[in-house]
Every structure is written in C-alpha cells, then in structure tokens.
User: What shape does this take?
Amino acid sequence: MRTVVITGGVGGARFIRGLQSHLGEGPIAGGAEQITAIVNVADDMWMNGLRITPDLDSIMYALAGANDEERGWGRRGETERVSAELVAYGLGHSWFTLGDLDLGTHIARTDLLRQGIPLSDVVARLCARWGLGARLLPATDSEVETHVHTTDGEVLHFQEWWVRYRATRPAERFEYRGSDVATPAPGVAQAIREADRVILAPSNPVVSVGAVLAIDGIAQALRETSARVVGISPIIGGRAVRGMADACLATIGVAAEAGSVGLHYGARLAGGLIDAWLIDTVDASALPELQRAGIAASAVPLWMTDLELSCQLAADALRA
Assistant: This one.
C-alpha cells in the first residue's frame, strides 16, 4: 500500500512517526507499506551562505530518532558555539539559532547543491545516512520561499516574521516567491497519482500545506488521483495545535476553526481537494456543515502528545 503524506515540519513529523509505528504493529495487507512524505520547502532560506531547509530537516531528524523532543526542533544534544561566534562577528541572527550538529547537515546540503545536484537528490543522499523507513520528497527542486507582506508595507522572509516577530506583525498577504515558475520535484506528482491513500497532515494550511499546493501541478494531481484524500485539522477548539496558524488563516480570511479549514480545502466532488476531514471531538458541532459540503467528516482525538496517541490518529486517518 502506498501512502502519501503532504506535510510541513513538526506536526507532520509526529504524524508520520505514528503512521510508521501503527503500520508496523501487525501484518500489512498486500505487501510492504510505502510511505512518501511530500514536504514544504517554502520555509527554506539562505543564511550565512548555507541553504537551510527547516521542514525537511525536522522530519528527517524525527524519523531518525535524532530530534530534540523538548524543544520540538533541531538535533538532540546540541551545542550552539558556531551560532554564538557568528553573532559575535555581527553576521548571525540571535533570533534564529542553528545548532552545531544541525550546521553539519546544512554544510553538507549546501556543498551538494553547489555541485549542481538537485535538492530531491540531495535529500535522498542525506536521508540514506539514517534509514528512515519512509521516502522524503521536497515539493519542488526550485527555490520557493514564503515572504510576508505586512500591513505597514514591509516585506519579511517568513522565518523572520514567524521566529523573530512570532507572527505579531499583521500580515496583508503571503507570497510564495518562485512558485510561479516552480514545478514539482521528480516523483511528486507521480506519487500522488499512484497512491492508495493521500493524507494532508495537521500542518499549517497556509504556509505549509498551502505552500506545497501553490506549486503548479500538485493540487491538480490531488484532484486527479484515484486515492482517497483525507485531511487532518491543525485547529482544535478554535486554537492552532502548534505555532501561529490562526494569524496565517486570518490573513487569508479563514476563521481559525476546524470546520472552516476543512471547507477552505473543499470537497473533491465539488472541485476541492479532500474527500474526508478529521476534526477533534471538541469540534464535533462542525460535522453537519462539513458533511453538507460533501466532505466525509468525523470527530476523533487529534492531540499527538505521545507516540501512542499519534498511532491512534494514524489509524483513524487510514480508516477515513
């Protein structure tokens, strides 16, 4: 069975870990399971001459068991001596600290990219070290970056708006810079079209999943796949599960409510992107409206506070 997960970083990583664990608990019907994660790259940026890919790295480290569970990002057992030195030289960013082990990954990636190797091949090479049990594909090999146009007329890279300002500076719009000329990375559209099931992870619907869908051809592949497309709400009880997704949703005029996000994706039978939508039990009152819109919605526990709960959510998504 071929399962494709369209995802951003931390929330998607937790879900994929749960999916792997769930599928490994019993016999797998029809042969070996294949999990492909199609990962957002619009959070990426150049910093101090290095290409940084936060979402790809978060998933790689999490599936490798090398991530920092307490912070939720980066490598376990990190030191930050190099970042401190860069700041001392006036070249670093105190609001965006990179660990020394993490820098090893960024140096390796940048070296390979500068040799002319496409990002998708670089990701495969880096992941081969860890034996992840899943295939990671960047949504595109092109450089696509989210820039935030603020209401006071400034344009910020998404990372500065998100990490430095914690999304407190009102945004007028998001620009997925480079997406107009980007094409899906090799294997991305094919993986979606040939999948047995496709899952939209509980990632930010605007700057994670939304940035993936902004790349020409990916949304169309979702509409054309014969697989059932199931989405998982990143909103529980009117609040973002992680980060500041509510600020992103407000910018595009979507309420920070589980039902509203499902309607934003829309039913495939009406030209949208999803067949089914999972919301938390606290949001069960949204089920009738979603079902009237042609979305097979159901309410299940969504919190992934440990691996057991992540496994249960994965089981619920596969049932949907």
Q: What stands out?
A: Confidence is low (pLDDT under 50) at residues 25-31. The chain has 13 helices and 14 strands. The longest helix spans residues 100-114.
